Task: structure prediction
Amino acid sequence: MEEEEAEEVIEVREFDPERDCGGVEAVERTCEVGPSGTMSLFTHLLGDPLARIRHSPAFLMLVAETRGPVREIVGLVRGCIKTVSCGKNRHCSNPARAATPIYTTVAYLLGLRVSPFHRRRGIGLKLVQRMERWFREMGAEYAYMATDKENIASVRLFTERCGYSKFRTPSILVHPVFAHRLPLPRRAAILRVPPRDAESLYRRRFAATEFFPRDVDAILSNPLSLGTFLAVFKSDSSAANPWLGADSFLADPPGSWAVLSVWNCKEVFRLEVRGAPTWRRGLARTTRAVDRAFPWLRIPSVPDLFRPFGLYFLYGVGGEGRGAAALVSALCRHAHNMARDGECGVVAAEVAACEPLREGIPHWGRLSCAEDLWCMKRIAEEYSEGTVGDWTKKPPGPSIFVDPREF
Result:
């Protein structure tokens, strides 16, 4: 009965940028109202409703609109499609191909919003089902989404009504950007890697990582990607030489090394913490004032997170060797200083729950999310050639590659 009523009064159609921006903004704004007295994080898109999906190979945005003389947008959802790795070809009889990645086409569903005044009428379900229809038409084999595990309504919608399974629980690690610069370890050398060499490095070392995008070259060359950085120990002989290219580096890699790339989310959206008590705001202002006045004290000040602020996202975190975690820490300090110069409030990374390099990523527990929930659903009837089987039933690996275009 609930879905029939929604069918009679709600139309789901493709987003029209010429006439829908105001209505979409109104829905986003009403969905940002959290419970009184609690601290919550809200997202502000910077004038472009398609900003979070625009850089993907294929994307679509749908809106739900009331029918009748007065039309009103009451819901929306975004989706994008790409080709990613779902693991290694472990059963291949050819040793030369045994470690090659197996690719599959996945669709990511994000930004599902329904106006608080029109909930419990089946609108969210209707939006998801319509988006999944487009996913199938585009040849996607899997669809997945991410949500806060505490968002019971969202979890129930996808797992109980839409047939998704709980798939992965990565961690979102967030660190504030201080008023002072962080000193870099004297024993670490940090090198900037050109996009073409970065692509070669990632493909040759991490292409079999879950969710590694086949079009990683498009990500690394995107204007929002601020660079790829490699860290090695200065005591290693290779650190004495300038960067000679990915081929030279991989032919004789040092005993320990680490790499990551930086993405500028500040140009796509801003975040804001709401519901903070007055005393917490006052404490944050005090720490910032002292940090600005005495930067040499290196006080861990709290940036102004209570107004819209930007962030830099760290992606492609990887490395090898016993000292890789320490080198990741050095790279994170370098990224912090980049974010400080870019006037961002935080730096963030999302990694697998069992990521071995996680200990090298500094973060504040109060700002981070220990368990982000990814749910997945197989939407294709047939398996592609060389498949690993049903990916939704595969146990998690040690690492995942989080696409910065979808963060």
Notes: The chain is about 25% helix and 30% strand. The chain has two domains: 2-168+373-384, 174-360.
